[in-house]
Amino acid sequence: MIYPVEKIDWIDNERKLAVAKLQKYLPKLFNNLRFTDQGLWSEFARAINCETTFPHAIDAVITPFQKLLVIQAIRPERLYSAIINFVINVLGIPSINPSPLDLSSIYKSESNENEPIMILISPGADPSQKFLLKELEELARKHISKAKFYQISMGQGQRQAALEAIRTCAASGGWVCLKNLHLGINDLAAIEKEFLSSKRDPSFRLWLTSESNEHLSPHLLQTSLKIVYEAPPGIKNNMKRIYAQWRQSELNFNAICLQSLFMLAWLHALLQERRMFIPQAWTKFYEFSNSDLRVAKKFVENVTKDDKTVDWELLCGLLKTVAYGGRIDNDFDMNVLVVYLKRYFNSSIIGMNGSEIAHNISLPFSSNIADYVNIINTNIPEEDNPALFGLPLNISTAYEMAETSKTIRQICSMQIVGTTEVTFDR
């Protein structure tokens, strides 16, 4: 059935050209959609998460991929989320985000002295790399010693230092970490030669970090244990990384202290993940780092670990002035930090059982760290809702549109040119 797209009143005018393309190039799909039935599509048109509210009558006659085409045409601001759901459902996986990188497990079960461990890091992921290297330092102290762990930042003039470190550690069973290998491309041949010619103690490990670079040695990549490190976004993943970093043996505190540490992890995740919504959420990018978190953790432990009345004003002042506020140079942004501190660090939240800090997320009153980890795993959603930050729901539109454009560009760059005709109507 052919009817003018202009007659479909419930679709925004700026989306009617995209809908007309559906009609022109995929007529069978278009006819199955019954766009002239406004009542059928009313919930889809109103819903924030439209990808989950397709009309049942339409859901039964189109494929999951065709749903993406409909969302791209009518509600492109939700296409990125729809693509994620599509991938999860098609692959049958719980999430597209990887589990937190566990260097200890990789060292014990996958590494050996004859295979370099190449960690590929996303460009610009400096805070993540610092966290990673800190974990590697702690792992080295546990399994060898600080004195036998050599770290060298590659760049001009570092070739000889790298070669000597490999030579020394291969013989003694130490570890070498050559950081930012992409900055020492000209040194790779010499490094490979030294590694291959060395007689390696079973305890020796060669750790390499690098951004992806087309000039990295293919042979080195082929013969290395390769790990891609890209910290997945979102409050849930952020808090998982924090608790993976905090050893359970170091969290043997009373319930109020553990509640306070959970709220600190929540606060740190909020501060970092708000950066997705610049300039509405923050006016600029602030480098809230793992160092800030360590300082804040010390303050929280010192103020709350004893069984006495907690001075919340003191704790909020320390977190504001020393731990986080020093990075903020804007009154609006400072007010955001102050509001968070007052909201989450007080006796009406901490010290109570079941205090709700967000929708469906309640704070347990427990001295068992597993109870807090369980809240992260089961109650915090995989996808951040702007309401978790205290932001309006429509603020995610710009972020979703940008991610959608980036994803489509990446898909197009992988397209294989061929002569086979493909139709989405089948």
Automatic annotation (TrEMBL):
Boundaries of every Dynein heavy chain AAA lid domain copy: 259-394
Top-level taxonomic group: Eukaryota
Coiled-coil features, chain-numbered ranges: none
Gene Ontology annotations of biological process type: microtubule-based movement
GO MF term set: dynein intermediate chain binding; dynein light intermediate chain binding; minus-end-directed microtubule motor activity
InterPro entries reported in the protein's UniProt record: AAA_lid_11 (IPR041658), AAA_lid_11_sf (IPR042219), DHC (IPR026983), Dynein_heavy_D6_P-loop (IPR004273), P-loop_NTPase (IPR027417)
Dynein heavy chain region D6 P-loop domain mapped to chain residues: 113-228
Pfam families: AAA_lid_11, Dynein_heavy
Annotated Gene Ontology cellular component terms: dynein complex
PANTHER family reported for this sequence: DYNEIN CYTOPLASMIC 2 HEAVY CHAIN 1, DYNEIN HEAVY CHAIN
Name of the protein this chain belongs to: Dynein heavy chain 7, axonemal
Protein species of origin: Onchocerca flexuosa
